[in-house]
Sequence to fold (389 residues):
Amino acid sequence: MYDFTTIIDRKNTGAFKYDFMPEPLRDSGIVPMTVADMEFAAPPEVNEAVAKAAFHGCYGYTGPDKAYMDAVKHWQKTRHDWEIENDWYVVTNGVVQALGIAVRAFTKPGDGVLIMTPVYHPFYGAVNDNGRTLVKSALINNNGRYEIDFDDLESKAALPEVKLMLLCSPHNPIGRVWSRDELQRISDICLKNGVLVVSDEIHNDLILPGFKHTVFASVPGASENCIVCTAISKTFNLAGLSCSNIFIPNPELHEKFRNRAHVDGCGCVPYIARAATIAAYNEGANWLDELISVVDSNFGLLYRFFEERLPMFRVTRAEGTYLAWIDMRSLGLGHEKLNEFMIEKARIADNDGEMFGEAGDGFRRWNLALPQSLLNDALLRLEKAVKEL
Fold:
């Protein structure tokens, strides 16, 4: 029904993936698999709503009115069986911005902030750039499937300086969709030790067949001790609209976060983002279902190719997101040489795993939200480069 095969020319649009690509690949025609946005057009229903809003011609300040909140509530209820209240809501211009706001609102310089590594690289910045202390609990790589080291997590949460935990759910870059039981244990540990949880759920709609996302706030006991961060950006390829929906059921926490967000300049739902959100959440479910089937098919191609033709590499089996996590340590190239190999020999623009923490050294992250023909081309280039190596 929808078009997930057309290759869209994004050059000269200011796109980070294209116009800021590593120099050896710029203007090469290579499609990058780096920044986590898609190579697909947004749902046509959204594009029509945006065009209508643009045609109106008056781009004034806008807020979360009834039409907006009704759409957001409808989506959370129908997609995640989570009922939200209007007074839980705060708007920010991105989830990364929300992480920084939370760190500034609920900790002071020197306080510890707990993360599970390897993890999305802005988590490190949200802590370090605000003068807080990074406390890391390494995930266990169990033959390619990552698990939480709960003993270590509990020992780190018990440290007196730790006041906040940044949770990535689903987890980027490893693609885990945490189970309800895992989230319950995280909640119990943090409640016991007085650690507030900020749950980054930006990939919450991108769940692969056979798995289910659990909203952290829906876990018994968690709602009064958490901040849930969501957005239309990853789900519908609308990241450039810079609009995220943050939910905080606890009134005291809500007030502190809202006040800090105000100081940091938040408060307006971007005009175009308002139209896009209403259309996406009211009319975008069928498009999303088809997108997930396309992404799932891309993962299937990736797994088969590596198993049959590049068995020296291990690919983590993703449960959510459109991000593949690939172990290339068997090449034995080392960090810098592996980067050179991918760019100069394989001619692939991807993400260096080390950007997600030291546990990512020797890994690569590939964005699979692209037409399958482009993924197949990249795989063939990699195979050729490995054989020549």
About this structure: The longest helix spans residues 285-309. The chain has two domains: 16-43+285-388, 59-283. Residues 92 and 265 are 9 Å apart (CA to CA).
